[in-house]
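[User]
Protein folding is very new to me. Any chance you could explain this protein sequence and its structure tokens? I have pasted everything here:
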Amino acid sequence: MPDALADVRKWAGQPVIATPIKGGLSHRIARLDTADGQRWLLRVLDPRVAEAGLGIPLDQEIANTLRAAEAGVGPRVLRRMPGSLLLEYLDGTTLDAHGVRTLPGPIAAACRRLHAGPRFVNDFSIFRKLDEFLTLCHTHGLRTPDGYEDRLPVAAEIERALAADPLPTVPCHNDLLPGNFIRCGTEIRIVDYQLSGNNDPAFELGDIAAEAGYDPGLTCRLARAYFGEDDPRLTARVRLNLIMSNLTWSLWFAVHHGLLKEQAAAADFDYDAEAAEKFARAVRDLDDPGFGRLIDDVRGCRTPAAPGSPPPGPGDVPPV
């Protein structure tokens, strides 16, 4: 960060005070305050993150950050430097999981703005990312949650179901944990494009729901707010992507902990516990009696319940 900060001070032509901001688990960020009262955000990108497969290449992240700014959702890029970005400081409230659960409408609107903006410079698939992480775990002997590979055939089944009638890809963030949403007045802005790429918009929604702990009913509301209609196929698509979010990102933590030990130690964060928790959530949803109905709904071939069959379980969203 010292080199980037020196570059900013030279560019600004005045004293700049840096205050590190804790939050991200990969790159370093700091709030910058200038002598004349301006405030910016400095984001210093760690090349080891991309090298370990935990983010997209740095040039792609920078390019996508510029395009998200063009869409009016990401912060404006004030200066681009080697391996770092000087960004507009968004003077708002960083959301937590509760905040994301209370704002499905504004969250959906922010996603629509991003998705309607310029396409990103790369594509992204949560299924290929899972394959990539699993290869890294095998190659480096990294620990995965107990029983993880037993669930891979079901992940392949989800991929086949979603691929039967795919949605057009759009520029997606792909990592919308609550802290990447900033509420600025009446609108929601989105930061941190470390895993961005053109993708199925239903993954964006499913990832939001997974990270903020949405229940099935709230996930349905988010899908309705985004797509503007009640469609069981679209809702099921979002819920299946919620499962894939938890299943795949559990390996993100396993890889990060295993390949970036020094950085992981400095973060004061329990990566193993987070991996286990995400995997447990995926297993919960895969084992839910309503899982097969989600597959059927995505394919548009739900079979009517047989006479005398049990009612839908608590994980099921009733027909709309």
Remarks:
- The CA atoms of residues 154 and 286 lie 8 Å apart.
